[in-house]
Amino acid sequence: MHEKLQKSPDTPAVGPVRIPTSRDFSNGVDVAGLCKSFGSQIVLKDINFRLAGGQGLCVCGANAAGKTTLLRLIAGLLQPDAGEVRICGFDLKNHPQQAKANLGAIFHKSMVYPQLTVLENLQFFAKLNGVKDNKALIQRLLEQSGLLPYRYDKVGVLSRGMMQRLSIARALVNSPSVLLADEPFTGLDADASKQLVAILHKFKDDGGTIIMATHNVNLSFQCCEQIAVLDGQKFIFNAKVCDIDTAAFARDYLSYARINTWVTSQTQ
Length: 268
Prior knowledge:
- This protein has 9 helices and 10 strands.
- The protein is α/β, with parallel strands linked by helices.
- A 6-stranded mixed beta sheet has the order 6-7-8-3-9-10, sandwiched between helices. It has a 4-stranded antiparallel beta sheet with strand order 2-1-4-5.
- Helix 4 packs antiparallel against helix 5.
């Protein structure tokens, strides 16, 4: 995972210092009291959760519930009205460079260059993130994403599914500790979705943290241990996947969440 700034016990603190916690959050995310409005419209109100390294959270909700807004706040692409976000112990507001260095993100826009080849895009983003000796890393990402046969193709001619695979590889090119994924299965066929699930499992096995927003609830069960539902600007449900009736949840997660709010729990 991405190397973090650390303080030796015998060395005076220089720059940002992590706040100790009862669990290992060195690769985790801590969101506290997060609020966001656009004009008079409240989108998110008092969002709280914590995830340690190796954990995954799936956020479900109807369209316009605020899922993408939440991910953009965690990514530092939007500023909250209140609350704070810590990425691997670094406060996103006060130490954005250190926090963002630990992030990878997949959003609706692919954020790649259509005039470049698949390989050139990954080389460019590796250089942009200061990743040296990146040949082996890029080779592995091409193989994992199934893009190796297309590495010399211009991105502009790729299908939507292939573009999504490249977006996933781009998000991992800096070896992030935290991965944000907004509808990551969009445009992927069954085989590609299975590949992505395997990539996400490997990412968590290596200590990474995943925060995902998706309507594909069944696939999210394979990637995340924790599942939450956004409704009415807040989490009305936040539980461990192993504690819920997954079949009933997948059929109608909003109804399930509204009926079963008593099972709400938060990773500590």
